[in-house]
Amino acid sequence: MAQFLVLMTLTEQGLKNIKKSTARAASFRKTAATAGVETVAQYWTIGSRDGAVILRADNENDVLRAVARLAADGYVRTETMRALDANEFDGVVAD
What's residue 95's pLDDT? Predict the structure, then answer.
């Protein structure tokens, strides 16, 4: 399964509705699961980003579709990147 790290920044709409953030996160988990995307972890962060989600799925397009739906709701802007564990990285850099 491929794993992805999604960094999130709250929009103005997200900031206005910040108290509902955990409820929206739970809703996203359910929606993602029905699309075949496992939510491994969800975090609220302090710093240049407001949150991070770790997702896992067999199909990269399923992850990208779920993240696009999340961003389309208008509460967060996202940056998605493929995350490699040590074994996957070793396979990439092997001679």
Answer: 75
